[in-house]
Amino acid sequence: MVTIRSLVAAFALIGVVIANLLSGLPAASAIDCTTVTALVSACSSFVMYGLPDPIPGSPCCVAMTSLNNVADSDDNRRVVCQCMMDLIATYSSNATAIATLPGFCGVSLGFTIDPNTDCE
């Protein structure tokens, strides 16, 4: 049985992982798909099963906000865009769920997550 304590511990661990990922990024440095994939992986339950819905403050939405924060320049936004396009191509059966993540979390990445999006 899942207890509140184990859920809180899991959320805290996810927060630490995300913070560690982001702390290793120099402010003006280009990001890569490993970082994008790691952040999106916080939303894996929603992407795979539709549950739990990401809501602001959830680990998934914290990750989407972090993704938005690292997409802080045109170059970084293009990288994030291309990585997201790669993810929806790889997980095409879950493309709609991936595409809805920023919106559910109240985040705008500055591009539409769609297989036809031109990231340039």
UniProtKB/TrEMBL annotation:
Domain of life: Eukaryota
Entry GO MF terms: lipid binding
Domain (Bifunctional inhibitor/plant lipid transfer protein/seed storage helical): residue spans on this chain: 33-119
Keyword Signal (UniProt): yes
SUPFAM superfamilies in UniProt: Bifunctional inhibitor/lipid-transfer protein/seed storage 2S albumin
Designated name of the protein: Bifunctional inhibitor/plant lipid transfer protein/seed storage helical domain-containing protein
InterPro entries in UniProt: Bifun_inhib/LTP/seed_sf, Bifunc_inhib/LTP/seed_store, Plant_nsLTP
Transmembrane domains' residue ranges: none
UniProt xrefs under Pfam families: Tryp_alpha_amyl
Residues in the signal sequence: 1-19
Keyword terms: Lipid-binding, Signal, Transport
Family assignment from sequence similarity: Belongs to the plant LTP family.
